[in-house]
Amino acid sequence: MEYLVLKYVHVISSTLLFGTGIGSAFYLLATTLSGDVRAIAVVSRMVVRADWLFTATTAVLQPVTGLWLVHRMGMPLSTPWLAASLVCYALAIACWLPVVWLQMRLRDLAAQAAEGNTPLPPRYWRLFKWWVALGVPAFFLFLALFWLMIAKPALGGA
């Protein structure tokens, strides 16, 4: 694959990964805070779908295209900004994986509450707090990752 096409795929997939994450997080957060159980059931179902369609596929595509680009450029993985970006990505994905599981639980609990015309159970709120607690560091890790990719700083005095 030509370098510029590969780079284009890498940039577009990072946009989809980050954009879907931000959009999904915003809508699930805002809808949950609204307290409208039926809306929460609908939005949480769509968030899970979006995560499987866009986030999961681009989460795989990112390291594949990124490592391919590094290989094409002949750059060692020990390059400081690159090594730091790999750590940020690994940590962000480590946050995201449990978030996917949490979103599926939130979806199921919201659907049950909507079907039964009952409020969200306490378990929903406990899981929701974990969802937020994992989402915040993932967001900042992705911001750091974008900065590393763009600035390519010389870290550690190198």
UniProtKB/TrEMBL annotation:
<feature type="transmembrane region" description="Helical">
    <location>
        <begin position="50"/>
        <end position="69"/>
    </location>
</feature>
<dbReference type="Pfam" id="PF10027">
    <property type="entry name" value="DUF2269"/>
</dbReference>
<feature type="transmembrane region" description="Helical">
    <location>
        <begin position="81"/>
        <end position="102"/>
    </location>
</feature>
<feature type="transmembrane region" description="Helical">
    <location>
        <begin position="130"/>
        <end position="150"/>
    </location>
</feature>
<feature type="transmembrane region" description="Helical">
    <location>
        <begin position="6"/>
        <end position="29"/>
    </location>
</feature>
<keyword id="KW-0812">Transmembrane</keyword>
<keyword id="KW-1133">Transmembrane helix</keyword>
<keyword id="KW-0472">Membrane</keyword>
<dbReference type="InterPro" id="IPR018729">
    <property type="entry name" value="DUF2269_transmembrane"/>
</dbReference>
<protein>
    <submittedName>
        <fullName>DUF2269 family protein</fullName>
    </submittedName>
</protein>
